[in-house]
Structure formats: C-alpha cells, structure tokens
Amino acid sequence: MLNTEDNRDLSLQLFVVLIRAYNSVTSRSNRDIQSHGLNSTEFGVLDLLYHKGPQALQKIGEKVLMSSGNITYVVDKLQNKNLLFRRPSKEDRRVIYAELTEEGKQLFTQIFPQHHQVIIDILNGLEASEKVEAIRLLKKLGLAAEGKTDLRS
User: Once rounded to an integer, what is the mean pLDDT over residues 22-29?
Assistant: First the structure.
C-alpha cells in the first residue's frame, strides 16, 4: 500500500503525464485542422452543425465549450468564409440558428474522413482494450475533478 507522500507524488506525476499527452494529441490534431484553413474552434462548430444539424447560437457555446462572445466571433468568421449562415427562429425572434451552407457541407464532407483517420493514427499507440480502459478511467477522473459523488465506472 502506498503511503500518503508516495500517493501525492503519483498524483503530480499523473497530472504532468496527462497534460503532456493531451498537448501531443491536440497538437497533431490541430495541425491537420489548420491545414484546411480552420482553427480547432471553427472545426468544432462545423463538426457540430454537420453531425447535429442547425443549432441555436446559445447551444453551440454549450456544446463546443465557448463563451457567448467567442461564439459570435467564430460564427462571423465562418459566415465570412461562406461556410455557414444565420437563420432567425420562426418561433422565438430572440433565437438565431447557425446552419451550414452547401459550401460548408461540401468542405466538411471532404475534410472529415481525413481528420478522422488522423485521430485514429494518433490513438493507435493504444490497443482497443486499453482505449476502453482509458475512457473509463478518464471519465472517472473527470467526474471526481467536478466533485461528483457517484464515481462508479
């Protein structure tokens, strides 16, 4: 059994390894995204709209973890690139939807398979069973970090 000091040292070591792994994975992913003239936030918005359809601007922020001010900026950039457009809600004038243009759909249809393969290549360092275990452990860690009491796997 580990003593308290050893456990504290392991916690710090795990934190450093986790951050380094995260940085390595996101760096490779971001390089691929940038090769298509996008940044990771723009890609995230296009991905959401492509896979989930039109979304209220407020919901985009929740789903891709952006502040409301940043949503407007990113949507403006994507609209200027003719990849999406804004559409007012018919039911509630306060709600504005973002929707992909045909050009946006075509671009994402073209680049997503390559990006998906990049992600597969990045994560090929783990066997399938290790990926399942990593998912379980990282979910458990995330819940604990959020202070959730139910930490069952």
Answer: 96
